[in-house]
Design brief:
heterodimer, A: mainly alpha, five-stranded mixed sheet, 5 strands, about 5% strand, globular, disordered N terminus, B: about 450 residues, alpha/beta, two-stranded parallel sheet
């Protein structure tokens, strides 16, 4: 159908119409790009492989978050949540649920949790391995959009993929880890040069999904603000008119997952705090105000200091050079959105408040990209300088070569320590004590026992035949409406207690008189002690 | 409630939600087409530079009981800065007062304006247009309504567009101007802006454009080939657009606020609902007539179909609110899927956000002094407006089903002319053209 699409002012004079003669089918250029592409694929595959190698057994599930999220996902798909179907126990709006909804979707996709000892961990670690692969692909896309030279793109991948900190943190099924690909996908979209309203709103939506996976990722918002704002800083008036539409489209996309979450709370009558139910506002109040801070990184022995020390000991070059590069990057228009998020992250780090260990997760790729940006800028400038003396040496190749050289020197810093850490992460079998514990429990404790447990072991025990109503997260005793309805006599009704560093933390705030229990097994390497109640204190239910 | 009934309810609600979501999503998508990308935002203007006059235009002005506004309209049209055109005013044989005004103008602007009497009964706009068509001698024929404020540069711009694009049909924008006459007028103005700025351009990508009732330029030969307008059509413009699409006539849709024809929104709610009912009935009539099925290409067919079911889409969009209320009840019953029932409403609220931005664009393009009050009214009127649209849709379609096909005519008072008109406005419009040229 003949339709006049454009007025004659827009007659297409692009190179396609003016090209003289067709190019040969397999040109040098095509071969070259084929080679460059294959090399990237090799890099990504190798880095993803190293990440996955040993991920099922190292690091061991220390903090109870991982076990909690897996259990939530299990409750979601098994549909047996007591009060809510989106959590194993009464959902109390501690975090938005999209993280474990993803785990649930993964379950639906690949069909079922692994059974057997530590089966649930194997399951979620496989998932994070695939997420890391996606992270790598998206990081490569982002550095492409940022116009890094080829050598610097590869170096960025290496800095991120070979970071012992990234490797150890991103293997664990933290919701931050599950949120990261959504954030990176949103970033890759927003940095697109030919940005349409559809892409902007999709970027907003993806970012929104990352925020309802882990709410703290909202701290990445400066990246998007800078990117959207910069669009019209050099351009016609029409651009600044379009900018408003873009910002609105982004915000609309971003708010949709949040609005749905809000609706969930409202429809259940759980928006505002009240007697006998949990609430969204109550949880936010707790997260922001009531929850104990982790102190300042300037105070020795504070939890925040502990996290920082842990990060530094894992990969100080990434943190140090990354933050410095972030500051330097503020000067370059291209990379400024990335720098904005790195700089804000560094400021947040310095300010006292609640600073969990996984805070660093969302920043890792951006730190690596910042370093890559500096390398790209420096190598390009140096290559341009050299070309002035030796013309026709080819700036692009020279820059890539220099970038690889600088990248190489980055890896010479503290190289033996990095090697040792990577070696340990990819080979050592860390979870053997936990395996031992689970095996012992399964063979020594009857399946119908009542038991207070660490969240990390809960799902495995349920999967291995223990009754979900009879084994209870120690955290939930005295804090969950449904648990307290069944166990009206509290700890008296439990035959066994499972003590770990996690349960000790729970007991610190809600003590149980352990003098009424006696030790029946201890596993010092796993940090686990198993106690049995004295017959005189036990009240059967 | 039995579990089978429960299942049935659940599935029904989900199907309805998907339907409403599709309808709301589609409306939002076409609304934003002009702002989707830089290309979409900029590429629809008419050629600006001056060239030779090659095209002769015939302007048709059907007027019925328009004695209050016709005189001014004609004297403005006579001032159009183009030499080769004729004006044919069509007056009903029973309408002496309008005839007197027309005759007066005919004498004042001798040679340009010609009055023609239409003695068809019952009266309708397409019949009048077909009567006028017989007297046309121009290469391109256009229509203006009796109350229209026509840009003085319009024919110059269209002449150049014809030369540059070889299009057989050119649609230029029409804009309602009285944003603050009543609670729904801003919304109504916004609808026009969106229709001409965004929707029609999107539509032209598929080759079938539901043409506007005026400021549309059609090659005379094409019009004769198509047999003129359908005398029975209530929206003869839309009908003609579909039939032109069937023969594959090339359509150019342009947008430039400086050549927009300015009109007024109906002043009373009743008049507005009447006008809407007629349009909805007209669209439905075209749908039933079935010419759209002969359009070439599946995409074009689908788009034309979706356009003709606009009345249905309006009804669906207003159902979002009712669905949300159902959702609240449903959630009380402990249904987790209740959240899904709210999704169409979420899209509708997103639409409201963009409406505010687009309202700002509208006011900038047309030098309207935007007040915060207008925006507040715009937002508050969202829900009642939707309900009036769906009432009109149901009423219009109902009229058709029950066989009432007479013409519900809109009265005009000249509310868009609260600004000083005549030569002043003409100069302003001309200077806008020059400014744009320099940019």
């Amino acid at each position: 159908m003949a339709v006049v699409e454009r007025s004659f002012e827009q007659v297409d004079l692009s190179s396609d119409n003016l090209r003289l003669g067709d190019k040969p089918y397999l040109s040098v250029e095509k071969l070259r790009s084929l080679f460059k592409g294959s090399l990237v694929v090799v890099f990504i595959v190798v880095l993803a492989y190293l990440h996955a190698k040993g991920a099922l057994t190292n690091p061991n599930p220390g903090n109870d978050d991982e076990g909690t999220y897996i259990s939530q996902a299990w409750a979601l798909i098994a549909g047996t949540g007591a009060h809510h179907t989106i959590a194993a126990y009464t959902y109390w709006y501690d975090h938005p649920p999209f993280g474990w909804i993803q785990i649930g979707l993964w379950y639906w996709l690949v069909g079922g949790f692994h059974h057997g000892i530590l089966g649930s961990f194997r399951y979620v670690r496989e998932m994070t391995d695939i997420y890391f692969f996606i992270d790598l692909v998206l990081v490569y896309r982002i550095v492409g959009k940022l116009d890094f030279n080829y050598g610097s793109r590869l170096v960025t991948l290496l800095i991120f993929g070979l970071s012992p900190l990234a490797m150890s943190q991103l293997r664990i099924g933290f919701i931050d880890t599950l949120a990261l690909p959504w954030l990176l996908a949103a970033v890759a979209l927003i940095l697109d040069r030919r940005l349409s309203l559809g892409k902007v709103s999709l970027a907003g939506l993806l970012f929104g999904f990352s925020v309802v996976t882990k709410e703290t990722l909202i701290l990445a918002i400066p990246l998007f603000i800078v990117a959207l704002y910069q669009y019209a800083t050099s351009g016609a008036e029409a651009k600044s008119r379009l900018r408003r539409f873009r910002i609105a489209a982004f915000l609309v996309g971003l708010s949709i997952p949040g609005v749905v979450y809000l609706l969930y709370a409202i429809l259940r009558g759980e928006l505002l705090p009240g007697p006998n139910h949990t609430s969204l506002i109550g949880a936010i109040e707790w997260q922001l105000f009531t929850r104990g801070g982790s102190g300042s990184i300037l105070t020795a022995n504070s939890a925040a200091r502990g996290s920082l020390v842990n990060w530094i000991s894992n990969d100080w070059p990434l943190l140090a050079f990354g933050s410095i590069s972030g500051l330097l990057g503020l000067k370059s228009r291209n990379i400024r959105p990335i720098s904005a998020v790195v700089v804000l992250g560094t400021i947040t780090l310095a300010k006292p408040g609640y600073l969990p260990n996984m805070f660093v997760i969302a920043y890792l790729p951006f730190l690596a990209i910042s370093i890559g940006g500096v390398i790209s800028g420096v190598s390009r400038a140096a290559a341009t300088g050299i070309e002035r003396f030796a013309p026709q040496s080819g700036v692009r190749y020279l820059a890539s070569l220099l970038a690889l050289l600088i990248g190489f020197s980055y890896f010479t810093i503290d190289s033996s320590s990095r090697e040792a850490k990577l070696q340990a992460l990819t080979t050592s079998f860390k979870v053997s004590p936990q395996v031992l514990v689970e095996k012992w429990i399964i063979s020594h404790i009857p399946k119908d026992s009542t038991m207070l447990v660490d969240d990390n072991y809960w799902l495995d025990l349920v999967q291995n035949g223990y009754q979900r109503s009879r084994i209870v997260w120690i955290y939930k005793l005295g804090r969950d409406i449904d648990v307290d309805r069944v166990y009206t006599k509290g700890w008296h009704q439990f035959q066994y207690i499972f003590l770990t560093s996690n349960t000790n933390a729970a007991l610190a705030t809600r003590p149980i008189p352990l003098s009424n229990f006696h030790t029946i097994a201890a596993f010092p390497t796993a940090g686990v002690t198993i106690l049995e109640i004295n017959p005189s204190a036990y009240v059967a239910n | 409630m039995g579990s089978q009934m429960q299942m049935l309810l659940k599935v029904t609600l989900e199907v309805v939600t998907v339907l409403l979501l599709a309808s709301a999503g589609f409306s939002l998508y076409v609304m934003l087409h002009a702002w989707h990308s830089e290309e979409n935002n900029g590429d629809s203007t008419f050629p600006i530079y001056l060239g030779d006059e090659k095209v002769k235009f015939s302007i048709l002005i059907p007027a019925r009981h328009e004695e209050d506004v016709l005189g001014v309209t004609l004297s403005k049209i006579a001032e159009i800065t183009y030499s080769d055109f004729e004006v044919i005013v069509i007056i009903g044989h029973d309408d002496d007062r309008t005839l007197a005004v027309a005759r007066d103008s005919e004498q004042r602007f001798g040679g340009i304006i010609k009055v023609v009497i239409d003695d068809n009964w019952p009266k309708s706009k397409p019949k009048a247009l077909n009567t006028g068509l017989r007297y046309c001698t121009g290469d391109f024929i256009t229509i203006f309504d009796a109350e229209d404020d026509v840009a003085s540069s319009i024919l110059t711009r269209i002449n150049m567009t014809v030369l540059a694009t070889n299009a057989k049909i050119i649609q230029a924008p029409v804009q309602l101007m009285n944003v603050s006459s009543n609670w729904f007028s801003f919304r109504n103005c916004l609808e026009y802006y969106l229709w001409f700025r965004s929707r029609l351009k999107w539509q032209s990508g598929f080759g079938v454009v539901p043409l506007g009732g005026n400021t549309v330029f059609i090659e005379r030969n094409l019009l004769l080939e198509l047999g003129g307008w359908d005398s029975d059509a209530l929206t003869e413009d839309c009908d003609l657009g579909v039939r032109a699409g069937v023969v594959g006539a090339s359509v150019f849709v342009g947008y430039d606020s400086s050549v927009a024809t300015r009109e007024e929104t109906p002043l009373t709610l009743k008049a507005f609902a009447k006008q809407r009912s007629r349009w909805n009935q007209g669209f439905f009539q075209v749908l039933v007539k079935g010419d759209w099925m002969k359009v070439n290409g599946l995409g074009a067919k689908a788009v034309t179909f979706v356009t003709l079911i606009t009345p249905l889409i309006q009804v669906l969009n207003s159902l979002s609110f009712i669905l949300a209320i159902v959702g609240v009840v449903y959630a009380r019953l402990g249904e987790n899927q209740a959240i899904f029932l709210f999704t169409p409403l979420i899209v509708l609220f997103a639409t409201a956000v963009f409406e505010v931005l687009i309202a700002i664009e509208l006011c900038r393009d047309f030098d309207i002094n935007l007040k915060v009050r207008y925006l507040v009214v715009l937002i508050l009127s969202l829900i009642p407006y939707q309900f009036i649209l769906s009432f009109s849709a149901i009423y219009g379609v109902g009229r058709h089903v029950f066989g009432r096909k007479d013409w519900l005519k809109t009265d005009h008072t000249g509310a868009h002319r609260s600004l000083p008109l005549g030569s002043d406005t003409v100069t302003i419009q001309a200077s806008v053209v020059i400014e744009k040229k320099e940019r």
